[in-house]
Amino acid sequence: MATSTARKTPRNGPAVKFFSELAARGHEPLLAHVSGRVRFDVLDKAGSDSWLVSIDQGDLAVARDAGPADCVIRGKRALFDQLARGRTNAMAAVLRGALVCSGDIELLIAVQRVFPDPPRGWDPTATERAAR
What we know:
Distance between the termini: 55 Å
């Protein structure tokens, strides 16, 4: 009997939902003056998933692909889930070393605009204050 070595990847969760919804948009006005390919490498204990977002003057195509990109953004799945919930900022995560960005950083700056804003009333310091 043959065993499968295929990785079981989460088919739900905030990051997967975000990339699926991004694919469904087709056109994003916030990226109307942007063109390029951004690959998001989402890492966890089991390996990695890659999402390739192709942008052509705001027209979007999203694929689960590890193909070549102008900008590669790499980080842990938990962090991408927080980005997808609006609970962290992509550029801030790069600056503190939680996300690694290689290639055209201007694409990261442009793409971070499509991630959701923080939830209304959400206080990112509340957990830290409660722990004191």
